[in-house]
């Protein structure tokens, strides 16, 4: 049995198990589905969809390069990016998961950045948003026991160190090679697209439809992982504290809340929660993979998530000792 067959059998077995759990525990499954859809409807939809539509319009009208080109030398020297890549970095940091990978994939698809630069951006432009860190993480999970500035600085420094590692060690400081991809970008002809000469109405129409397609896909993954989390909680018979850590690795929003309520000492909660938030959880990994261009390697993104998580935990320990 080859690797592809093993993946298919594993996926089918997992889905059948979830279906049996749903049929045997309908009320528990319903509660989990409602929680997942509340997260999608109240958080993801209003925060990400406007950015997906507006950035889609900007990508298709070549506005990005005109705005950021005056600082071209700064982006290349400091970040090793083209102006379009700098746009991904800025909005990826502001919007959070999985906006950075989505923007990098869209720009690669439209021949605005090279394959190498897109994969380089995967390593550091895909982080939790400042809104998530300041409201949910600092206020709800940590109950304001950690200063917001400390949390933001730790995530920023970990991201910068991760970026420098991949820039100088992995990609050897040769990341942005202009608008022509270093490996040909084979277009997906089935996807509805526009050109810069299309009417504004047509570009807006395509941007809206692609935005809703992306946000709906993300909602499906949230629903699926909400059911998986409910299944884990139902069948877990061991330590509830270990269960909360496992749930945090599955889906960070509900998982981190479970860790905050687990009764673990705060000296353990703090680094673990920060590390899991930097990693994003397997739900975020699945969402990010779903919006990444299939021609791009996802390995740099996965590698960066583990490195960034480790760096975040290390910085938490350093800040705790120093401060």
Distance between the termini: 54 Å
Low-confidence stretches: 177-184, 188-192
Main sheet summary: none
Beta content comes to under 5%
**Overall number of strands:** 0
Order of H and E elements: HHHHHHHHHHHHHHH
Overall mean pLDDT score? 84
Rounded Rg:
20 Å
The helix-and-strand class reads mainly alpha
- Our count of helices gives 15
Shape: globular
Helical percentage: over 70%
Compact description:
Helix content is 75%, strand content 0%. With 323 residues, it is mainly alpha-helical.
How is this structure best described in words?
Residues 177-184 and 188-192 have low confidence and may be disordered. The chain is mainly α and 323 residues long. The termini are far apart. It is 75% helix and 0% strand. The chain contains 15 helices and no strands.
List keywords for this structure.
single chain, 323 residues, mainly alpha, 15 helices, 75% helix, globular
Q: Helices, strands, pairings?
A:
Blueprint: H1 3-24, H2 26-60, H3 63-68, H4 72-79, H5 83-95, H6 99-109, H7 115-121, H8 130-141, H9 148-170, H10 200-235, H11 240-250, H12 252-260, H13 266-279, H14 281-291, H15 299-322
Helix pairs in contact: 1-2, 2-6, 2-10, 5-6, 6-7, 8-12, 9-15, 10-14, 11-12, 12-13, 13-15
């Amino acid at each position: 049995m080859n690797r592809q067959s093993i993946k298919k059998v594993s996926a089918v077995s997992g889905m059948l198990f979830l279906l049996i759990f749903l049929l045997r525990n309908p009320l528990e499954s319903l509660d989990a589905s409602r929680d997942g859809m509340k997260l999608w409807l109240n958080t993801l939809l209003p925060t990400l969809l406007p950015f997906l539509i507006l950035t889609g319009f900007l990508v298709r009208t070549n506005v990005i390069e005109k705005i950021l080109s005056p600082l071209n030398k700064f982006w290349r020297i400091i970040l090793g990016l083209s102006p379009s890549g700098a746009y991904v970095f800025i909005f990826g940091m502001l919007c959070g998961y999985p906006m950075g990978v989505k923007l990098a994939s869209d720009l690669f698809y439209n021949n605005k950045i090279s394959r190498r630069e897109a994969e380089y951006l995967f390593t550091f432009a895909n982080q939790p948003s400042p809104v998530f860190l300041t409201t949910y993480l600092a206020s709800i999970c940590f109950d304001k026991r950690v200063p917001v500035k400390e949390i933001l600085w730790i995530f920023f420094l970990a991201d910068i160190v991760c970026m420098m590692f991949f820039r100088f060690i992995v990609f050897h400081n040769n990341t942005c090679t202009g608008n022509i991809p270093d490996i040909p970008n084979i277009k997906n002809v089935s996807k509805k697209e526009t050109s810069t000469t299309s009417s504004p109405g047509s570009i807006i129409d395509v941007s809206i439809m692609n935005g809703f397609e992306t946000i709906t896909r993300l909602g499906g993954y949230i629903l699926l992982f909400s059911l998986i989390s409910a299944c884990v909680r139902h069948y877990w018979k061991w330590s509830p504290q270990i269960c909360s850590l496992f749930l945090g690795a599955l889906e960070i929003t509900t998982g981190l809340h479970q860790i905050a309520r687990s009764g673990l000492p705060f000296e353990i909660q703090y680094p673990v929660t920060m590390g899991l938030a930097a990693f994003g959880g397997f739900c975020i990994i699945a969402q990010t993979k779903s919006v990444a261009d299939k021609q791009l390697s996802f390995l740099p993104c996965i590698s960066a998530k583990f490195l960034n998580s480790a760096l975040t935990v290390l910085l938490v320990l350093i800040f705790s000792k120093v401060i």
